[in-house]
Design brief:
Elements: E1 2-5, E2 11-14, H1 37-44, H2 48-56, H3 63-76, H4 82-89, E3 94-99, H5 104-117, E4 123-128, H6 139-147, E5 154-158, E6 171-174, E7 185-188, H7 190-203, E8 209-213, H8 219-234, E9 244-246, H9 251-262, E10 270-273, H10 276-288, E11 298-303, E12 316-319, H11 322-337, E13 347-350, E14 353-355
Parallel strand pairs: 3-4, 3-5, 5-6, 6-7, 7-13, 8-9, 8-10, 10-11, 11-12
Antiparallel strand pairs: 1-2, 12-14
Helix pairs in contact: 1-2, 1-3, 5-11, 7-8, 9-10
């Protein structure tokens, strides 16, 4: 039985008996636009207040009616707006993944986030600010102000340019540009990974090793260049500054950097690229110049995005566990949403490793 108050203040009672026994099951009508609570009520043959009680889990509705209305809701595809849900419950049960743009790295992080929320009861919104990061420093503040509180309970920021953001909910960063700060974050060991990649080339016998660097303002790029330098120094090799070219982690700058390196009078016998995208551009330029990889040139990338195994030839690269980084960040975020005030490890650094494929071999003169 449910009680509804009328406009004149009187109380009207009704008994919810659910669908009539033997009543035919109707197919969902062709509805245009967003399905409303009124449409659900009309289709189910109950009052709007009954539908509201079913949606909000309130008492006064029989089990049979709850089951019937729920079936109608599922059939029609009704969903209360996230804003209305947040106003009612102060929770949306949705987390956001905010990226500047969708590219191989952020896409892999997104997969890890999806892995982490499986079975958690949370849903996922992926939000892209669009454009090139270099022209959009501070995009995180604008994006978070639009989403936090009314649409999402917390957010994972992928490669944010800044971390000093004020929000209405918890935020965890993946590979922040400025490195670890007061915001919880997950990164890979960029320094270790770069050393490993260059050490692999040195172990093959290469001594003339060029590098296509990343964006100079990013900590991850700085650490990868430092790892390159440290690996050469540890092997007793002098760093030739003319063998370094900036690729900015983007396709066209990396292509030009590769062309400059490979067109030298004495080109490198190997190139260490600060990300896989730069390595792909190096492979393309080598093919255009008629260079055989790995016969004339060895190439090592950094990231191990899925496309690296499909390159021609398949790319030797430093694997940072990108998908796991998204999963770890989401686990941290869910703990914060649940009320955990202090994370045991707010700055997590994950190990890297070299995945050897067909783009590297000993230099031709040493065979």
């Amino acid at each position: 039985m449910s009680l509804d108050r009328t406009r004149d203040g009187s109380v009207r009672g009704s008994i919810d008996v659910g669908p009539r026994a033997g009543a035919p099951v109707l197919e969902a009508p062709a509805l245009r636009g967003r399905v409303t609570m009124q449409q659900v009520a009309a289709e189910a043959g109950v009052s709007i207040s009954t539908v509201s009680k079913v949606i909000n889990g309130r008492y006064g509705v029989s089990t049979e009616t709850v089951d019937h209305v729920t079936r109608v809701i599922d059939r029609l595809g009704y969903e209360a707006s996230l804003v209305a849900r947040s106003l009612r419950n102060r929770r949306t049960n949705v987390i956001g993944v905010l990226v500047m743009d969708f590219e191989p790295f952020s896409t892999e992080v997104l997969k890890g986030v999806a892995d982490a929320i499986h079975g958690s009861g949370y849903e996922l919104i992926a939000y892209s600010a669009g454009g090139h990061i270099g022209a959009q420093v501070g995009w995180e503040r604008r994006s978070l102000s639009r989403l936090m509180g009314s649409l999402v309970d917390g957010a994972v920021l992928v490669t944010p340019t800044v971390t000093d953001v004020q929000t209405d909910g918890p935020v965890v960063a993946v590979d922040p540009h400025t490195g670890p700060s007061g915001m919880p974050c997950v990164t890979a060991d960029n320094l270790q990974g770069a050393r490993q990649g260059v050490e692999h080339l040195i172990a093959l016998g290469h001594t003339r090793i060029g590098m296509i660097t990343g964006r100079p303002d990013l900590v991850s790029a700085q650490q990868r260049e430092q790892g390159y330098r440290e690996a050469l120094a540890a092997a007793g090799l002098t760093v030739d500054e003319t063998m370094l070219r900036s690729g900015d982690f983007e396709a066209e700058p990396a292509r030009e950097a590769a062309r400059e390196l490979l067109a030298r009078r004495e080109p490198p016998t190997a190139v260490f690229a600060a990300n896989d995208l730069s390595a792909f551009m190096t492979l393309e330029v080598a093919a255009e110049l008629g260079l055989d990889v790995p016969g004339d040139l060895s190439v090592v990338g950094f990231d191990n995005v899925p496309e690296s195994a499909l390159a021609d030839p398949p790319l030797t690269t430093v694997q940072q566990p990108i998908r796991r980084m998204g999963e770890e960040a989401t686990t941290m975020l869910l703990a914060l949403i649940a009320g955990e005030e202090q994370l045991a490890d707010p700055h997590r650094v994950l190990d890297t490793s070299v995945v050897v494929r067909a783009s590297t071999a000993p230099p031709r003169q040493s065979r």
